[in-house]
Amino acid sequence: MAKVFDFPIILHSQACYCRYNYPLPYSQHPLIFTPTAEPRLKPNFPKLKSSYSYDNNNQTEKSSARRGLHYHSSRKRVFFLDVNPLCYNEGTWSFQYFAHWISLFLADVSNGEPVVAVIDGERGNEYRRNLLPTYKANRKRPGGSVSGGFIRTSVERSHKVILDVLKNCNVPVVKIESHEADDVVATLVAQVLQKGFQAVIASPDKDFKQLISEDVQILIPMPELDRWSYYTLKHYKAQYNCDPQSDLSLRSMLGDEADGVPGIKDVVPKFGRKTALKLLRKHGNLENLLAAATVRTVVMLMFNLMTTGYLIETLVMIQ
């Protein structure tokens, strides 16, 4: 008999009560297939306990188990599926790409645990774009070519199919107008943590690293291994040699070229990751660093960097 899991979602003063009925029989999942549309009757790899190590030099994950993925936890978990990034393969909209990763996710990862899918709301980046007009201005939008109308229509149809697929899999979809999925996920994660659950964010978006803790893990699709892989607090510390609490300050200092967000390095020459990490270890966070800069001009940071630093922090913060 399928397990039943009740979980209240409260977001922006609007409450909805989601009733999960997990798991569907494997054969009834409408999206268990490879990009070639051939039925996949069993998972691509066995569920084996894996021991992971993180190579800080080349930043590649190694696993002692052959293509295994199994994460043990004594506490109940809630998965948050960040849908939009999974629809793009190297910047190009691809329903087949989404189908492949959601198929692996349902078959090999979620294991009947509750899943909430989150998508960007209409005009989701409007708030940040008002602060910085170049925010995500370099992103390719479907329909930019001569056949743009056809591409746009195709994307809209695929988007509807994706929503139908999630609905048929008993996966509720949360979409809040004028809010990006990142911010909605952060709100929901905070709610489940307050109720004593652990949270797993399934997304390739590196912005979620600022949320990592003992109770929050990230699940990253790894095309080179053709599987999802957990990214935990241990991995973060091994990669950056600092706590995730410093991630927001680090990203505020370095900026984000993918989102068109400038960093302090665009104001101060030769300012890079090594210098940023050194300053964070000394001062703790961006606020303390900027306070020190106004008094002692740490590494040539002038007073006007306060405006730049806080603007960047607002843009990269998931809130």
Automatic annotation (TrEMBL):
Keyword Nuclease: yes
Keywords associated with the record: Hydrolase, Nuclease
GO biological process: DNA replication, Okazaki fragment processing
Residue span, 5'-3' exonuclease domain: 76-311
Any Pfam family hit: 5_3_exonuc_N
Gene Ontology MF, one: 5'-flap endonuclease activity
InterPro entries listed in its UniProt record: 5-3_exonucl_a-hlix_arch_N (IPR020046), 5-3_exonuclease (IPR002421), 5-3_exonuclease_C_sf (IPR036279), FEN (IPR038969), PIN-like_dom_sf (IPR029060)
Name of this chain's protein: 5'-3' exonuclease domain-containing protein
